[in-house]
Amino acid sequence: MRVGVFTPLLSQLPLQVVVQKLAELRIDTVELGTGNYVGDAHCKLSMLENPSALAEFKKVLGDHGVSISALSCHGNALHPEKAFAQRNREASQDDSARREAGRFHDG
Amino acid sequence: MVDFSGCPGDSPNATAPNWVTCPWPPDYRKVLDWQWNEVVSPFWVEHAKFAADHGVNIAVEMHPGFVVYNPETMLRLRSIAGKNVGCNFDPSHLFWQNIDPIGAVRVLADSIFHVHAKDTQLYPSNLVRTGVLDTKPYTEERDRSWIFRTCGYGHGAEWWSELLSTLRMFGYDSVLSIEHEDSLLSPGEGLAKAANFLNSIVIREQAGVAWWS
């Protein structure tokens, strides 16, 4: 069992600063928002099409020995406004994101 | 991955979600049946399969305002969607529904995939006026019947230690993910207080052999 942090509360800070701040609190596990209500400040799915951004993301985590406990996209995929629901579904169903989730964890 | 169950409207023509909280008048039961049969079940069967095909587990956060808000509805969704759908256990949403979170761990057991560390404080002096269904903004702390708190400020170390012990007893030995939504403490101070509090009680080591048994 270990202590982690769901990072939207630090969304105004870059990931690099977040992991340094968490190290001071003896925390090396993060839960990252990837969209919908919780935002995607520290883990933009667009990284999946941007190898250099993905490499930098993994380096920041790797350099600090930080692991990811979960990717979060709290939304309402069943919202009656179809366009809203569709955006929420895409955030949680993005095919590449799911496949790449494992790669995030490798970082 | 962590998500909500979602909440549909009351019919195909709705424009806003409709969270049903009572069985009567009969309209509410009809809405609830329509939501689960026509929207929730078809979506989640497909959604869970898609995730399973990609090796992903989905941890649904039981949260009022969505069709999955208590252990019963959580287990109902899991029975429909499959074993790769479990829960993101956040005690803060259970306290104010009068659900004992420690007891809920026993009900949910191996369906707990992930845990949020967030506390809730209830205010009996306001509960007599408002009850638990308080729709006032979270920032009206003085008048609300409950608000979210930093771990340790709603319930003390004795309570949280029992929660962690019960989580381990029922097979959850992973992350306690601090979520800050306490309007009385800044995010920085809330995070530091929660981290220090949980670091002092988190159960890090494996139990080992019960040599005395």
Keywords:
heterodimer, A: 107 residues, alpha/beta, TIM Barrel, 3-stranded parallel sheet, B: 213 residues, 5-stranded parallel sheet, two-stranded antiparallel ribbon, 7 helices, 7 strands
Protein described:
Chain A contains four helices and three strands. Chain A is of the alpha/beta class and 107 residues long. Chain A has one domain: Divalent-metal-dependent TIM barrel enzymes (TIM Barrel, Alpha-Beta Barrel), CATH 3.20.20.150. Chain A has a three-stranded parallel sheet with strand order 1-2-3, covered by helices on one side. In chain A, α1 links the parallel β1 and β2 (29-33). Chain A is globular. Chain A starts with a strand and ends with a helix. The mean pLDDT of chain A is 89. Chain B is an alpha/beta fold. Chain B has seven helices and seven strands, in the order βαβαβααββαβαβα. Chain B has helices at residues 27-53, 71-81, 91-95, 101-108, 124-130, 157-169, 187-201, and strands at residues 2-3, 58-61, 85-89, 112-117, 119-122, 146-149, 175-178. In chain B, α4 (101-108) runs parallel beside α6 (157-169). The longest helix of chain B is centred in the first third of the chain and has 27 residues, at 27-53. Chain B starts with a strand and ends in a 12-residue tail after the last helix. The model of chain B has no long low-confidence stretch (mean pLDDT 97). β1 of chain A pairs parallel with β7 of chain B, so a sheet runs across the interface.
Can you summarize this structure?
Chain A is α/β, with parallel strands linked by helices and 107 residues long. Chain A has four helices and three strands, in the order E-H-E-H-E-H-H. Chain A has one domain: TIM Barrel.
